Fold:
Amino acid sequence: MLLPKEIRTYCATCKKHTVHTVSVLSVSHRRGKLSKGEIQKARRDRGIGGHGKFSKVPVSRMARRSKTTRKIPMKLTCKECGKASQRTIGRMKKAEIKR
Ligand SMILES: [Zn+2]
Structure:
């Protein structure tokens, strides 16, 4: 879905409707170099003990998921005060900002 570059909506700080710039937030961001599962896997791969949950063939995250779309959050930045807020737009596969 294509989103507009700017929308006019309510700003809680200005307490009125102002123009906001729209940007799409990315859902996944890495908090460290390795994820918790990757650290567990690395410990198992050192060779001591059994392989635990890594003994089984992995099932991909997509295969476990029943829904094919995500609820996409967008970031709204007020042009007057610069305060940012988040709003989910609803379910869709992909969100882009109109150029
Ligand atoms: Zn504002």
Q: What stands out?
A: The domain at 1-26+67-99 is CATH 3.10.450.80 (Nuclear Transport Factor 2; Chain: A,).
